[in-house]
Design goal:
301 residues, DNA polymerase, domain 1, hpI Integrase, Chain A, 54% helix
């Protein structure tokens, strides 16, 4: 990417930001780190065809974050360190505040917080491990549970609340009627997921008591609780006979994290992952992008 700004409007905004930083006594160092971070962003906007700062929306800020994730270091090998990306985002937050105060923009564009990245890491299954669990399933119910937990990335509470009518095989959509914060969403099902659910519905579920129409029920037709579903998953993991997998303490939420990482590994956009998982904010999804980048770096060493 080019190294100098050309757009006179952007140059003026950068000068204004420089004064903003000086007045507030931010320590910029010899390299003018705050100005450099904002200059990088403005140059990226130019290259992307953005000519006015008011054109910037959350779409551009998400794309810029993805650019930072993949951006090579200027010196040395590899991509930008987490702390560098963290600083870039912090500087953009200051820049946006400066824009608001000067009435250069009327509405904010999305800038992620880094608070999400300090969360406890969960165990992640590899694609091969997921295949192994599928191969050792003993009935259609087990395959169906793996399909909605991993294949559809549902939360434990969402799986527990699923009804038969939520599986819409004719449209290829799974309906989450009340996800986190009571939000409804439609999750696309892959062909293998639809086939596993079709087999479960036609060969096992419809032979069980209808009960209240829950998707996963016990022998009495009662809805299976989230804890019981996790117990079933633990049994499924133990059926593989793989010690490393068994000791990993895999839960339904680990399946959800696993599909998120695998989507990121296959270059799915942050926005797609956000919609697929039902995140209210893009911010939550950045966690997967950052940690996925770390995993890729480790595997290439």
């Amino acid at each position: 990417m080019k190294k100098t700004l050309i757009n006179p409007d952007f140059i003026s905004l950068l000068h204004s930001f420089t004064n903003y930083i000086k007045v507030r006594n931010y320590k910029t160092g010899k390299r003018n780190i705050y100005q450099s971070a904002v200059s990088d962003f403005l140059i990226w906007l130019e290259v992307s065809g953005i000519r006015k700062i008011k054109q910037v929306t959350s779409v551009e800020s998400v794309a810029y974050f993805e650019y930072l994730i993949a951006r090579p270091k200027i010196r040395g090998e590899g991509t930008l360190a987490e702390k560098t990306i963290k600083f870039q985002l912090f500087a953009l937050g200051l820049f946006q505040q400066n824009l608001l105060e000067n009435k250069e923009i009327e509405t904010t564009f999305f800038i992620p917080s880094y608070s999400q990245f300090s969360q406890k890491e969960r165990n992640i299954l590899t694609v091969e491990q997921v295949k192994t669990v599928y191969q050792h399933c003993q009935n259609h119910q087990e395959r169906a549970l793996l399909s909605v937990g991993y294949g559809c990335g549902l939360r434990r509470s969402e799986i527990e609340a699923l009804d038969i009518n939520d599986i819409q095989l004719f449209s290829g959509m799974l309906i989450v009627r009340s996800g986190k914060n009571s939000k409804r969403r439609e999750v696309p099902m892959s062909n293998p997921v639809m086939e596993h659910l079709r087999q479960y519905l036609t060969q096992e579920r419809y032979n069980a008591p209808l009960g209240n129409g829950a998707l996963f029920v016990n022998a009495k037709g009662q809805r299976i609780s989230g804890d019981q579903l996790n117990t079933l998953l633990k049994k499924m993991i133990e059926q593989t006979g793989q010690y490393e997998l068994i000791k990993s303490d895999i839960t339904l939420h680990c399946l959800r994290h696993s599909i998120a990482f695998h989507l990121a590994e296959n270059n799915a956009s942050i926005e797609f992952i956000r919609r697929f998982l039902g995140h209210a904010e893009i911010n939550t999804t950045y966690l997967y992008a950052i940690k996925n980048k770390k995993r890729k770096l480790i595997t290439t060493l």
